[in-house]
Amino acid sequence: MQAGVESEYHRLLGEPQEGGLLVVADHASNRVPADIDLGIDPALLDAHIAVDIGVRDVAERMVRPGTAAWLGHVSRLVCDFNRDPGAPAMVPLVSDGHAIPGNALTDEERHARAARFFHPYHDAIAALLHRCRPSLMLSLHSFTPALATSDTPRPWHVGVLYNQDERAARLAIAWLEAQKCVVGDQEPYSGKVLNASMNRHAEANGIPYIGIEIRQDLIADAAGQAAWADRLTALCDTVARPL
Fold it and tell me: Which residues contact 164 (CB under 8 A, 6 or more apart)?
């Protein structure tokens, strides 16, 4: 495991560098603080509703001189960092058909949850970008081969998401397709809808970014995680040059 800075809401691995690469993984942890009871079967904490499976290990393997990784340090069931402030899904009551009874909070409790995790997380990213502006940001997530609420398989190896700023995404899609990857352009999710962290920190600051979703079965073991870390490192090196 890479050494770095750790707080209740984040881990920062590597040394951020002006003009470098910043990897942001909002859903890298399934950690639930001891004083929070979600009221769910503990086995669900190892499922995709609690954490982006494989992402932490891919991000850690990408850290090198010039590349730092910013990782969320609580489960998305405690606080989903990739949402707009105050959005209901920031503290989800249901995820992929599973009720989260411990998140039936009063307004005061929801505000307290946001004040403890959500706002410090994003305030700290903003401060980091102010101190040390990267040339490229990589928003790293993973997706299930199929949702529990659907029988439709997802054929893509990797999805590329973006909102208004398509500069890096278009280059990334072409590069990944040249590597014989099955690429989802705005699949399995659309960056026009689910792009909150990059809207806030990349698009709002004019920083080029790539939103990446890797299919979870491809990064479920160390070999897959290493292969995708190498692939994404090469991708970001290539994309950053012409930007």
Answer: 203
Show the DSSP H helices in 114-195 as ranges: 119-131, 167-178
| Residue 92 in tokens | 């989800």
Distances (CA, A) of 62 to 45, 91, 189, 231: 25, 29, 24, 10
Extended beta strands in the chain, E state: 4-6, 10-13, 21-25, 67-72, 94-95, 98-99, 136-143, 158-161, 183-185, 209-215
Tallying the residues shown for the chain, one arrives at 243
Beta bridge partners of 11: 6, 71
Q: What is the DSSP letter of 64?
A: B
Fold of 4-240: Aminopeptidase (3.40.630)
Say what angle helices 222-240 and 55-62 make with each other, to 10 degrees: 50
Q: Using CA atoms, how far apart are residues 167 and 170, in angstroms rounded to an integer?
A: 6
Contact status, residue 26 vs residue 76, Cβ threshold 8 Å: yes
Q: What span, in angstroms and rounded, lies between the C-alpha atoms of 198 and 100?
A: 26
Asked if residue 58 lies in contact with residue 229, where contact means CB atoms within 8 angstroms, the answer is yes
Give the residue carrying structure tokens 């990059």. 198
pLDDT digits (tens, 9 = 90+) for 169-191: 999 999 999 999 999 999 999 99
Name the token pair of 167: 């500069």
Return the domain boundaries, the chain: 4-240
67: how many CB neighbours lie within 10 A of its CB?
24
Q: What residues pair up with 138 in beta bridges, in sequence order?
A: 23, 210
pLDDT digits (tens, 9 = 90+) for 182-218: 999 999 999 999 999 999 999 999 999 999 999 999 9
